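Notes, p. 3: input format for complexes.
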Amino acid sequence: MDNIEKIKKLKEEKNAIILAHYYVDEEVQKIADYIGDSFYLAKVASQTEADRIVFAGVEFMGESAKILNPNKKVLMPDAFADCPMAHMITIKEIKEMREKYDDLAVVCYINSTAEIKQYADVCVTSSNAIKIVKALPQKNIFFIPDQNLGDFVRRQVPEKNVMTNYGHCPRHTNITLDKLNEVKQKYPEAKIAVHPECKREIVEAADFVGSTSAIIDYVVQTEAKDFIIGTVDGVFAKIKELAPNKNLHTIMDVQVCPNMKKVTLEKIVDVLENDTNEVILNDDFMQKALSPLKKMLELAK
Ligand code: 13P
Ligand code: SF4
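Output follows (301 residues plus 1,3-dihydroxyacetonephosphate):
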């Protein structure tokens, strides 16, 4: 029996579902029950009837699924697949900002640890950050931990005082304007679609800025033939499936998330077979971190 057959059989035996982010390898995306951006996957995780959730993604995604489902088993194919940005903010920084501003909302990108989420007022993803920040009653917003997504929100919601810390995604901030201009010269007719985790100069040069699913929708629905994509190339798999005639170009030679790459079919078989790499969180953490996640699900409706 090959890995795909084993996964199908084990999923039924264990009443498990597999959620996969667009950044994991195509062969993993293919065996998933649900593929999506972070927001879509959090929503699916909040609604499932399955006993086990196998999260083909990085740690913060598995943690959010567990917080939304404290009584289910959430299994991570690779226990070390973690998003470095999730750790780029401290509790001390949040407390200092709370002391400084009475009228402050701590808006926490879902790419953060469960420990940090406990101190947030609301979570957001790249697909709903603008909508949620606009809807908050507070004028002062401490947007953590992604300074680039925070900067994007700041410019879209000028009526708020959006402050950020120094966190960033190493994969997206790696993308340079020089390289973008080089690729654009090669394909002058191409449309540029980027993720808001990119630096401001990249976002400003783009025709479209959005979450991974928004980028996929944009490319599939836009008339052009050539597209320059400023995000991890895992999104190419879905675009190729939906619009095989589009030409997709990366900006950098390599646009992969090494942590998402750690997820393999073999590891999924292993966790399904042995119930290993279960996400275990302290009950107190989970209760406190649930409120900002629930608030996101409500406000994003
Ligand atoms: P999305 O919410 O757009 O899927 O992004 C997740 C992510 O980690 C981007 O680097
Ligand atoms: Fe984290 Fe960046 Fe990887 Fe997204 S692409 S999971 S933000 S390291």
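The domain at 3-82+260-280 is CATH 3.40.50.10800 (Rossmann fold).
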